[in-house]
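Slide 14.
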Amino acid sequence: MAKSRIVYLDIMRFLGCLCVVTIHTSAYFVNHTDIGQAGWTSSLAYDSVTHIGVPLFVMISGSLLLGKGLTIERVLSRNVSMIIRTFLVWSPLYVIFEILNTNKFPGWKKIFSKIVIGKYHMWFLFMIAGVYLLIPLLDPIIKNEKLTLYLLLLFFAFGSLFPFVQNLLKYAPLLHTRDVYEVLEEVEGNIRFHFCESYAGLFVLGYWLRYKELGPNVRKWIYAFGVFSIFGAAGFNLFFTQLRGKTLMVFSNNFSPFTIGICVALYIFCKYQLAEFSPGPVIRSTVAVSLQIYLVHVMVIEFLTRRIDVLAIPVSRWILIPLLTMVVFVISLVISIGIRYLSGRLKAWTTSG
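Slide 15: predicted structure.
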């Protein structure tokens, strides 16, 4: 691997890809399994814990792009335009795939809507493009340690802890908590502090963790909270889902303290423990086509589940979901490598022509 690469960020990107594939694989089982039915607990647990995928991607991007002095022109002409081009290719591609996969024509009005909105997982492209647009505004902030910590404090307070408390009050079985939730919701609506509730906080957090040196004792506390967060994310979702009789994933969303706790612990572990690790060809290949894997894996899941009744496979979901995740991941990786190769050949042909 090239010396300029940051090994622990590559490892995190690889883990992020695995988590994203696991989320959508386990979500298929969650959506097709009744609460309390065999395999429901394991499906929800996997879905809850692996929500760290997208936050990891955002933190990695912040680690690599902030502090580079990127101008508005550079951000628009390269970063944002790349996202737009990607969406313009993949959104129509998914519409064509859906027609072929289901053998149904939804009508031109619906086709137009699907192309404009994109497949459900392509919200990521809209989000990351929005974060990229903020880079010229965030760069002056991260040059000042005090301002950086202030922004992170606002992000944790209003983007993570406050919504977490709101959800506890909303779904807790205690008397009058729903009334308190409604009051807090109105207060939040009046404050409208949405900038600090956005993915920009995770973007800056990734940059800060890259350059901030943390002592061994601090790292131990972070690891401890990370382990606690794994059980917290799954445990809270399981408890409140059973309590309310409907699937609730709010305690493991991308801004949950549990999700952020796992992400930070994983980031710190990779940074301090895996900095000298030598990635193998699978990790290197995954990192090179991580965006393509993200985009194509939903197509692979829908293709397989339409032809194979995975719900009827007589294997424990604790084992089946990781196995199916690996199948989807490997197929997505192979397809993505093929796409990258063909894109390179096409670019070389058009350039030489």
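Speaker note: The chain is about 75% helix and 0% strand.
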